[in-house]
Design brief:
- By secondary structure, the chain is of the alpha/beta class.
- The protein has two domains: about 55 residues, 5,6-Dimethylbenzimidazole Phosphoribosyltransferase, Chain: A, domain 1 (Orthogonal Bundle), CATH 1.10.1610; about 270 residues, Nicotinate-nucleotide-dimethylbenzimidazole phosphoribosyltransferase (CobT), large domain (Rossmann fold), CATH 3.40.50.10210.
- It has 13 helices and six strands.
- Helix 5 packs across helix 9.
- It is globular, with a radius of gyration of 21 Å.
- Its EC number is 2.4.2.21.
Length: about 350
């Protein structure tokens, strides 16, 4: 589709939205969302019938340096909880009729032989990026490719992505810093619930890790030096989903940093990303602003798992239904008031 064709199609979508039986603009952000969905699907009658949540789990070597309030073993325990249907993401997804799948992208310890678990292990957790690269370039490629394959095998008009990995807010903070040059100070937050002293310690560790590699790095180099297996795999899945003409529901801070990486690798995917919510994690609003993203919800959440992405799904469905099914002034025989003197 040429730029001229895209402009013409956008104009036709805007006309369809403006001539629905409502005052122009009266549905606010839902109208913007309807435009976004229509452009992604290239359809004036977009359909949003199915969504699937994929949770990527992996461990981070930086967790061994004391950046989290929880032990690394919690990652493996939470994978079991997801598979048993006991996590918040499972409860929200069940309420909304959304299927959940769980991916072992690189949980510490031996491989898990659990029914229903998708095994795409890149390694038993990354190395500590305080002391050297988190992963090799080959592992970055492997994680991206695994994410691409998972997205391709997952059904849905929109795909939601979540994550689990103790230490991953630290990883996300330094990734955002290295990918954008935003100050590390504004990106480091409490994560799983650190106190003030813990946040200070976390910041100091990340500042030392950031200083380990000076100069400008490519996105692929940043991912190798500081990435997490689940974050890189999620970036690959987001990129592939958007390139396939499907909507990506972006969750909280960590998922947004994965989206940031995906956009830097493939800038053309940005229009397919729906940013579900603004979390309470310190750096999330900063990264959203850098991406010029306006999240749909702000609920003071900071859990991850895809919980915020799930809550945005009904809004995406409503936006598509409005454009597809809502009557126009002409079809309903209702006066638009355009010719009125009032």
């Amino acid at each position: 589709m040429t730029d001229q064709d895209r402009a013409a199609f956008r104009a036709s979508v805007q006309h369809a939205i403006d001539t629905k039986t409502k005052p122009p603009g009266s549905l606010g952000r839902i109208e913007d969302l309807a435009m976004q969905v229509a452009l992604v699907q290239r359809s004036l009658t977009p359909r949003m019938a199915q969504c699937t949540l994929t949770i990527f789990a992996a461990d981070h070597g930086i967790a061994t340096e004391g950046v989290s309030a929880f032990p690394q073993a919690v990652t493996r325990q939470m994978v079991g909880n997801f598979l048993a249907g006991g996590a918040a993401a499972n409860v929200f997804a069940a309420q909304l009729g959304i299927a959940v799948q769980v991916v072992d992208a690189g949980v510490a310890g031996p491989a898990m032989a659990a029914p229903g678990l998708i095994d795409r292990r890149v390694g038993a957790g990354t190395a500590s990026f305080l002391r050297g690269p988190a992963m090799t370039p080959a592992q970055v490629e492997q994680a991206l490719a695994a994410g691409t394959a998972i997205a391709g095998a997952t059904s849905g008009d929109a795909l939601a992505f979540g994550e689990m990995g103790i230490g991953n807010t630290a990883t996300a903070a330094i990734l955002a810093h290295k990918l954008t040059a935003l100050p590390l100070d504004v990106l480091v937050g409490r994560g799983t619930g650190l106190d003030d002293a813990g946040v200070t310690r976390k910041h100091d560790i990340l500042a030392r890790a950031a200083a380990r590699v000076a100069g400008t790095l490519t996105p692929m180099e940043v991912l190798a030096e500081y990435g997490g297996f689940e974050i890189v795999m999620m970036a690959g899945a987001m990129r592939a989903t958007a390139q396939a003409g499907r909507v990506v529901l972006v969750d909280g801070f960590i998922a947004t940093v994965a989206a940031l990486a995906a956009v830097q690798l493939a800038p053309e995917i940005r229009p397919a990303l729906v940013f579900a919510h603004q979390s309470a994690e310190a750096g999330h609003s900063i990264v959203l602003e850098w991406l010029q993203a306006q999240p749909l919800l702000s609920l003071d959440m900071r859990l991850g798992e895809g919980t915020g992405a799930l809550l945005a799904w009904p809004m995406v469905q409503a936006a598509a239904a409005m454009l597809r099914d809502m009557a126009s002034f002409d079809s309903a025989g209702v006066s638009s008031g355009v010719d009125s003197e009032d």
